[in-house]
Specification:
The complex is a heterodimer of chains A (111) and B (119). Chain A has 111 residues and is mainly β. Chain A is built from no helices and eleven strands. In chain A, the strands form two sheets. In chain A, strands 2, 4, 5, 6, 9, 10 and 11 form a seven-stranded mixed beta sheet that branches. Chain B is mainly beta and 119 residues long. Chain B is built from no helices and eleven strands. In chain B, the strands form two sheets. In chain B, strands 2, 4, 5, 6, 9, 10 and 11 form a seven-stranded mixed beta sheet that branches. In chain B, strand 7 and strand 8 form a beta hairpin. Chain B starts with a strand and ends with a strand. The chains are: A mainly beta (111), B mainly beta (119). At the A-B interface, strand 5, strand 9 and strand 10 of A face strand 5, strand 9 and strand 10 of B.
């Protein structure tokens, strides 16, 4: 299995701050077709996960542009500029280059 | 809009089988996409379990391969999860979700159903 390691586990922020979450994979996520299948999800309290970013840096439909993704190979980052109250919840990275796996989650909470 | 809804028993005894249904509305499961089961353990860990594709082919997580079966009823636009020989470690919230192809992201999720394995 490809192990996905997220840091930090918990991220206290003030509204309006920038937040950054790191995700590292135990193997390269570059597929033989050249694509990198690294995605980000947000799970708000009491809800199922919802897709934010797909293939490293592509915002899903309806996702605000304050969310951005970057990275390559085994190291990836999700950035949220100007955190809003609706952004609070648990963020997961996930890879589907290999058998799909997920990171352990990063809880974004108010400082 | 496509919607997915899980249903099934909330309590299963150890060594028995867990059976869940995902009912899809707003899209035919035979038109396209792969239809997945994912579970979330207490403490938030997510595990992909497997899928059945629009053509009926299946793919399973190797960690579950001996215990899992995903089938479908196209007349009801439903797909099913069966997990055999459950233990307390199978206690989780079970989600059904859709993705475009084996390498794609999960773009639509159900609300989830919690299953507890206990005697």
């Amino acid at each position: 299995d490809v192990v996905m390691t997220q840091t930090p586990l918990s991220l206290p922020v003030s509204l309006g701050d920038q937040a950054s979450i790191s995700c590292r994979s135990s193997q390269s996520l570059v597929h033989s077709n050249g694509n990198t299948y690294l995605h980000w999800y947000l799970q708000k309290p009491g809800q199922s996960p919802k897709l934010l970013i797909y293939k490293v840096s592509n915002r899903f439909s309806g996702v605000p542009d304050r969310f951005s993704g970057s990275g390559s190979g085994t190291d990836f980052t999700l950035k949220i500029s100007r955190v809003e109250a609706e952004d609070l919840g648990v963020y997961f990275c996930s890879q589907s280059t290999h058998v799909p796996t997920f990171g352990g989650g990063t809880k974004l909470e108010i400082k | 809009d496509v919607q997915l809804q899980e249903s099934g028993p909330g309590l299963v005894k150890p060594s028995q089988s867990l059976s869940l249904t995902c009912t899809v509305t707003g899209y035919s499961i035979t038109s396209d996409y792969a239809w997945n089961w994912i579970r979330q353990f207490p403490g938030n860990k997510l595990e992909w379990m497997g899928y059945i594709s629009y053509s009926g082919s299946t793919s399973y997580n190797p960690s579950l391969k001996s215990r899992i079966s995903i089938t479908r009823d196209t007349s009801k636009n439903q797909f099913f999860l069966q997990l055999n020989s459950v233990t307390t470690e199978d206690t989780a919230t079970y989600y059904c979700a859709r993705k475009k192809d084996p390498y794609s992201y999960f773009d639509v999720w159900g609300a989830g159903t919690t299953v507890t394995v206990s005697s």
